[in-house]
Please model this.
Amino acid sequence: MRIVVTGANGLVGSRVCEQLTGGGYEVVAFGRGARRVGGPGRWVSVDLTSRSDLERALAAARPDAIIHPAAMTHVDGCERDPEGAWATNVEGSANVARAAHALDAHLVSVSTDYVFDGDHGPYDEQDAPNPRGVYARTKLAAEHAVQVLAPGAAIARTAVVYGWPPAAQLNFGAWLVTSLSEGREVKLFEDQWVSASLADNVAAMLIELAERKLGGIWHVAGADVLDRYTFGRRLCEVFGFDPKLVLPSTLAAANLAGPRPSKSGLSVVKAQRELKTQPLGIEAQLARFHEAWRQSRAA
Model:
């Protein structure tokens, strides 16, 4: 099975590529510019916002499936550059969807818990989105584009994806570990509830959606919903860091450019019921996260 992975320099994309090693998979990794993260498969530098370039690259790759995590995900950056966010998140996804449909390739398009307003989470796949902010609105628009242009595609929503080693930039978990290991205090929101999701676990669920050619909306995230402050305290327990370094804070005090939903957890009951790859609870996630960090330090 030949699978194209977009955003292969990113955390989720690189993990998908790594997990596709062997097992009869042929990987074609798409990214902008040079490859910065190791992994299997042929590398293709392509700008997803250029429809013609993308169509040529996909026609040459001839994929059976496309896993599409590439996106502009920096919430405040999207707020400052709405045109760039629209081009990458909406137009890029629309281009991928059109090409996937033309090539009869099954598409798994990655979305986010931020499509919900965060007033009444956790949310399941049947709940109505109500995005706030540029990032959230462009990701919901991308969902709609995929549903219209690639019928049968999977929309895979995830949340607060973290892992070690980090990819091109520090993710939430990697930032925490780096800061706490250096003895630096961190301020974490005690009023934002999230479904923290280990990147390796998310990647495995995305691969299953592609392999089984499952369509519709799926929540592929961590099995537990907890606030970011509690997440930090739990991480300290597993890693042996000083919990006094983790300080409670609030969304309002942070004065962020882009709005964040306060109760945006995702219900993963559907994934638990129908996928072979099970969403991990926080204990299992942090144990795997710690082991990956420990091995990197020992290398």
